[in-house]
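Q: Given only this backbone (165 positions), what sequence would you predict?
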């Protein structure tokens, strides 16, 4: 796909073809923003490489978290790009930077733990979580979908909307 005309609701493709749409659900190619690519931190993978525990880049005192980083796992795939990891990494880096400034608190390490609800519709959700840094492969537990997990997801969402904003 080379262009999207939202007004005319038309897609254009590289081979010259075009197509109309009513509702477009489109995920563009996933890549770091230009400011990161031009910053000289991107490795061969196309993403920023970091220490998997501290999220420090090869430039001392410069950290990268979330989707811009690629953290290789032993099984050959990278740590999934997910909000739960971006969140955990952010807290680790923030605490370590605060510690550098204040000299207080213990050093923090990101240990690869993540979890998420898995919506399946019909008022039900499952749950998956575990240690993605475990070797030789991540140790992830899956919970069978039920209304309880869906309710848990709703409450989790509400806690963000009402207490953290
Ligand atoms: C369809 C979809 C479903 C998903 N579902 C889940 C899920 O169920 N659970 C889960 O954990 N994760 C999920 N994810 C993944 C999750 O959204 C991402 O991993 C997470 O948002 C990454 O956070 P981030 O802060 O690294 O990047 P982002 O959330 O992408 O934030 C980066 C921000 O930087 C801004 N930015 C870019 N360039 C510049 C610039 N030059 N100057 C200033 N700002 C700039 C962008 O506008 C953006 O706001 C999903 C992702 C998608 C696409």
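A: Predicted residues:
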């Amino acid at each position: 796909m080379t262009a999207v005309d939202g007004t005319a609701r038309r897609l254009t493709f590289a081979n010259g073809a075009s197509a109309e749409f009513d509702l477009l659900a489109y995920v563009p190619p996933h890549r770091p923003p230009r400011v990161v690519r031009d910053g000289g931190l991107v490795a061969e993978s196309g993403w920023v490489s970091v220490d998997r525990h501290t999220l420090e880049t090869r430039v001392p005192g410069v950290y990268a978290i979330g989707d811009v980083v690629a953290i290789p796992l032993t099984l050959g795939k990278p740590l999934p790009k997910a909000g739960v990891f971006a969140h955990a990494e952010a807290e680790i880096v923030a605490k370590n930077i605060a510690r550098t400034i204040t000299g207080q608190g213990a050093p923090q390490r990101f240990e690869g733990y993540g979890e998420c609800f898995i919506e399946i519709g019909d008022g039900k959700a499952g749950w998956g979580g575990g240690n993605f840094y475990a070797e030789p492969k991540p140790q992830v537990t899956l919970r069978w979908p039920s209304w309880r997990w869906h309710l848990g997801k709703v409450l989790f969402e509400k806690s963000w909307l009402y207490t953290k904003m």
